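Page 42, continued from yesterday. The earlier attempt failed because a stray header line got pasted into the input along with the sequence. Redoing it now with the clean sequence only.
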Amino acid sequence: MRNTVITLCVVLAGALCLAGETQAQESAELVKKLNSIIIPSIVLERANINDVAPQLTLDSRLHDKTKTGVEIKNLDRTSEAEISLTLTNATLHDILIQVAQKTGLSLDLSGPAVILRKQE
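This time it went through. Structure tokens are written below.
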């Protein structure tokens, strides 16, 4: 019985390690994709963050070579943060970093989608 429990623990620990590696790989792939999408021009003037996230999703599809883009979700729907930003030939990654900094939201790049949420 003890050997079965130890074996089960080793198997579970291995599964958790694989899950962590998979998440790290997804995150690295997402960052690579964000860096490959160049937005020629972005002009935001007092734009509400609730409007910016879906617009950046559309822009990512438009300027992605594969046309799949990246899903960008704002989980802080109560935020009324406004942002002003003007950039040319910027990667989507750089744009998202600036958006997060200027709105006080955190940027989660750990999954298949980009998540903006309240900082903890």
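Notes: Residues 4-13, 15-19 have pLDDT under 50 and may be disordered.
Reminder to self: strip header lines before submitting.
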